[in-house]
Amino acid sequence: MSDAPFIEIRNAAKSFGALEVLKDINLTVEKGQIVAIIGPSGSGKSTLLRAINELDPLTSGEVWLDGVQINKDLPFRQYEKHVNQVRQDIGMVFQHFNLFPHLTVRGNITLAPKMLKGLSDKEVNELAEEQLKRVGMLERIDYYPSQLSGGQKQRVAIARALAMKPKVMLFDEATSALDPELVEEVNLVMKQLAEEHMTMIIVTHEMGFAQDVCDRVLFMDQGYVVEEGSPDVVFRNPTQDRTKDFLKKHLQGQN
Amino acid sequence: MGLDFTVVPKFFDVIFIGVGWTVAITIAAGLLSFFGGIVFAVVALYGPLLVRLPFRLFAWLFMGTPLLLQLFLIYFGLIQIGIDLPAFVAGVVGLGLHFAVYNSELIQASILAVDKGQNEAARTLGLSRGQALRKVVIPQAVRAVIPPIGNNMIALLKDSALVSVIGVAELTLAAQQAIGRTFRPFEFYVTAAVCYYFINLALEAGLRRIERHIQLSR
Ligand SMILES: Nc1ncnc2c1ncn2[C@@H]1O[C@H](COP(=O)(O)OP(=O)(O)OP(=O)(O)O)[C@@H](O)[C@H]1O
Ligand SMILES: [Mg+2]
């Protein structure tokens, strides 16, 4: 098991009805690695990310995390139990934050650990404070999401995911819904996680960020991983025409 | 014979007890209609087919027939099958279930309108379907329909007068008893109307407080 990759996606395919969205994707991620997924709209980036935690289960193929198959074929009840268990190890951050508006920042963070980890009130409160400190949001612990800016909301959403002590964090365009001046505070938190060697898979439209932070870049188009490699290779010496076209469009205006 | 409101104070005790019963029945039936409405909504949306279908029929019966008839059925009819409810209980059950069905319709629509991302975020953290529904989706769905549920509560208060027909000594029946002894319908119906009006004001004030309280958490 020690030789097996930390995360492995094998022959992954996914269709929505007749629409094939993922086509034979293979991907391995080592512990502590940070992988960026880039590509045009509709190429299947979100679907791939959501396949990892079974939000959009694959049509065929396998997803493994730390020696456990995520997308096991099990009878319904056992499947539900299994999925609820493995999802605790996979943090996910959404474009639109998806904070729970009826709960305070504290409530957002403590809800799942309290219900799923059997921690006491005192323990979950300490946990919430610790995670909020990490994202610089401790002073807002008793605010409601409606009282926060977009950047603050996303930092709380990251803290909420971290509070489950996940083995990997998935980011689906975490900064795309933010006003430009709020992007940096969220990027800083993600950079800090990178320094702490959190394993991360980051879907992003920010090529600069991917270049700075990630160990590896995947370029997806029409359901395929068209090109993959270190940021230097993918951004500076791409081999595929589709990658070149995409980068031409997306690097315009950036420096 | 002219109007003479001086007879009213002699019946303050009767009226006062009537007000008490009206408030009690409104609170009890109101709570039943609220929590029953949530349960009904969940059953109607997620229950197994074998439960959902009879439930639709039950909901249709409660919405499509007069409340008065339902009260008669629950109080007088159920005795024949061995269920002998005290009048107060029969009144609370009848009013409560009747309005629970209306609240359930509101809550069902509201549950379906909660952003899908909320459920996804909860499930991503590891919550089960049931936990996500209970802790994330339903609290938001209910908050969103507090104002129309409040309107149903006000309707419930007014319809609580109907339980006088099965002999609950609430405000309307209390007024009728006073009228029976004094033959002064105008004075006592007006008195009862004024009492309903003030109970209504209190209820509305309570509802406004609740709305203010949840304002930030929406
Ligand atoms: N639930 C769904 N049902 C049907 N089709 C879907 C569903 N989710 C995604 N798709 C389709 O799958 C394709 C890939 O979508 P996906 O969201 O993965 O793209 P993406 O690369 O994340 O794009 P974007 O950059 O716009 O977020 C699109 O054509 C999309 O319309
Ligand atoms: Mg996407």
From TrEMBL, chain A:
Its main location: membrane. It comes from the Bacteria. Signal peptide: none annotated. GO terms for molecular function: ATP binding. Residues 7-247 form the ABC transporter domain. InterPro entries: AAA+_ATPase (IPR003593), ABC_ATPase_HisP-typ (IPR030679), ABC_transporter-like_ATP-bd (IPR003439), ABC_transporter-like_CS (IPR017871), MetN_ABC_transporter-like (IPR050086), P-loop_NTPase (IPR027417). Transmembrane segments: none annotated. The keyword Repressor does not apply. PROSITE patterns: ABC_TRANSPORTER_1 (PS00211), ABC_TRANSPORTER_2 (PS50893). It is found in: Cell membrane. Keywords: Amino-acid transport, ATP-binding, Cell membrane, Membrane, Nucleotide-binding, Transport. It is a peripheral membrane protein. It holds the Pfam family ABC_tran. Belongs to the ABC transporter superfamily. This is Amino acid ABC transporter ATP-binding protein.
TrEMBL record, chain B:
It is found in: Cell inner membrane; Cell membrane. InterPro entries: AA_ABC_transptr_permease_3TM, ArtM/GltK/GlnP/TcyL/YhdX-like, MetI-like, MetI-like_sf. It comes from Pseudohalocynthiibacter aestuariivivens. Belongs to the binding-protein-dependent transport system permease family. HisMQ subfamily. Part of the binding-protein-dependent transport system for glutamine; probably responsible for the translocation of the substrate across the membrane. Residues 19-207 form the ABC transmembrane type-1 domain. Its main location: membrane. This is Amino acid ABC transporter permease. PROSITE patterns: ABC_TM1 (PS50928). The lineage of its organism: Bacteria, Pseudomonadati, Pseudomonadota, Alphaproteobacteria, Rhodobacterales. Keywords: Amino-acid transport, Cell membrane, Membrane, Transmembrane, Transmembrane helix, Transport. It is a multi-pass membrane protein. The chain crosses the membrane at residues 15-45, 57-79, 85-102, 161-180, 186-203.
